[in-house]
Amino acid sequence: MPSSGMFFALYIAIILIGAAIYIFSSIGGIQRLIDPIRKTYSGAYGPTARLMIFIFVPAVFGCTVFSWMKPIKITPDAMRIQHPTSNFPKKFETMKNPIANPTGPEIEEFIEQARNNNVRFLPQIHLEEGRPVNIEQIPKPSTQAFLKQVREGGYVDKVLAKKALLEKRLFEGMILYQINCRPCHGSELAGAGPMAYGFKLRPIDFLKSETIETVTEGYIFWRVRNGGIGLPTESTPWDSAMPAWKNDLTEEEIWTIILAIYDMSGKAPLTPDKSK
Ligand code: HEC
């Protein structure tokens, strides 16, 4: 479909061609066209006419074109809803972070991996090319105490192992956050990442009190999966740059990041029963 600009150019071209045909079709046509122009600038119609035509008319024309072309900022007339619920599938509301509470078999497997010096990390987690992360590098008290027990080869406390496994997951979440979310939400979680200033609607400051602690973690899971494009109309003025992560991060990775965000910001999610 041709744009209105194209039609406009076409009309102008037809008018110019028509005018040219009219002028050049009669003898003396060009003379009749040029005479008044020459008389105007030589002052034959008086100084006022000359002033009007050469200063006033171009000034009015220039100002009009300028005001057409000037970029204008329109402020949306509606308030943006940060936590929309109109298209929020309720099944997410009661979801609990499945990795926040390691199960018995998970703890057993973790102890086994530690004994074999082969604790596995999520695929995105590696420090340098060709150098995998080692659990030894997590400088947390429970992890270090757990590793000491493993090295001594004797009894391994399950409660301690569970704490160490959680510390490992938080470590993974922190790294995943720094890789994927930091550019916008910032390394300090305050919504001041290097890309943040490029967006009219600024990335959320997770340290602020009215953000992640006012919703359930299931809600955050849904928001992270669907991003800005998953938001309903009441959240659209100032379109959100928040990416939809469901195709780039696995559910496990998203939950791991969510666990770390709540931990690092020192906040707790709303519990589903309290949210009613
Ligand atoms: C390209 C920039 C960008 C990146 C990268 C980004 N975000 Fe966002 N995020 C935003 C913006 C902008 C908002 C605010 C608008 C909105 O709510 O959609 C936002 C909002 C959010 C919210 C909503 C908070 C609330 O209280 O409603 C969550 C949760 C969130 N981001 C988590 C993440 C996570 C987790 C990652 C990394 C996996 C991430 N974001 C990566 C730009 C980004």
Task: Itemize the secondary structure elements and their pairings.
Layout: H1 4-24, H2 29-41, H3 47-69, H4 104-115, H5 141-152, H6 158-180, H7 182-185, H8 217-226, H9 251-265
The structure holds heme C.
As a percent range, the share of helical residues equals 40-55%
Number of helices: 9
Gross geometry? elongated
Outline the low-pLDDT stretches.
none
By secondary-structure content and strand pairing, the structural class works out as mainly alpha
Radius of gyration: 34 Å
Oligomerization state of this entry?
Answer: single chain
- N-to-C series of helices and strands: HHHHHHHHH
Could you report the average pLDDT, rounded to the nearest whole number? Answer: 90
Bound molecules: heme C
Give the distance, in angstroms, between the N- and C-terminal Cα atoms: 51 Å
Largest sheet: none
Count of the separate structural domains: 2
How many runs of DSSP E, i.e. beta strands? 0
